[in-house]
Each structure stands twice: as structure tokens, then as C-alpha cells.
Amino acid sequence: MSQSSVNIEEVDVCKCGYYCQLKTSRTPLNPGRRFFGCKASKENGGCGYFRWIDPSLEKADESSLMNRFIDGHNPIDRLKRKVKELEEERDSLKFQLNENEEKMMVLNKKLKEVKLQRDWENVKFNRVVIVFLCLLTIKWFFNIV
User: Fold this and answer.
1) Which residue windows are coiled coil (predicted)?
2) Cα(21)–Cα(18) distance, rounded to whole angstroms?
3) Is 46 helix (H, G, I), strand (E, B) or coil?
4) Are 19 and 11 in contact (CB under 8 A)?
């Protein structure tokens, strides 16, 4: 049986007696290659058992690999595109935030002006009322005397 036709539904049992986990290599030499590996690492007392499921990149057809990467199946390129999209979205949101902060400052300034205008009109009205009451008081006083 060749390595390319390995049945991954049959789970390996390592020398420690554990069912092996299906893992994916993240090393530069074997990026994305799948393998069965011992549940515990060698550093944690495991046996270090592993068996490749996917064929090595050296044995793979170069044209099929190129097609895979050109078609956008390269996870690094997909992640780079996603990062670029997220950075563009972040920049757009920052721009919108700055615009909204400027609008908020203008509205706060207008609100202060409206409050000052209202307060000034209240003062003017209070002066008119006081003058009117003073005139009534004077008229009343002179009518009595």
C-alpha cells in the first residue's frame, strides 16, 4: 500500500498504548503534511511515535503543487489576504471614527451656543419681568399716597 492511499480512518496505537492523534505538520520542511502522532510528546514522557499520512512534497508532482498554490489553496497567501482585508477595514473604521469625532465636536459647540443663547434670553425675560414689577409697585405706591 503506498503512502498516498493510507486509510486515515484506521487509527494507529503508539508504543505508549494511546490512540494516536491525527496532526498537521507546521515545520518548514513539511508544511501542511498530516501524520499520526503519539498523544504525549517525547519531552512529556511519550514514545515519540509518528507515521506520515500524506506523501512528502519531494514525491509530489511539481505541477500539481504549483496549481494548488496558484488556485489560492496556499494557507499563507489566504492569511496574508485576510490580514490585508482586516487592515483595510480597520483603516476605514478609524477614518469613520475620526469623522464622527469631528461631527461630535461641532455638535457639542453648537449645543453650548444654543444653551448660552437660551440662558441669555432667560436673563432678558427676567429683566423685563423685574422692570414691569417695579413699575407696578411704583404705580401702586403712588396711588396709595
Assistant:
1) 76-117
2) 9
3) coil
4) yes
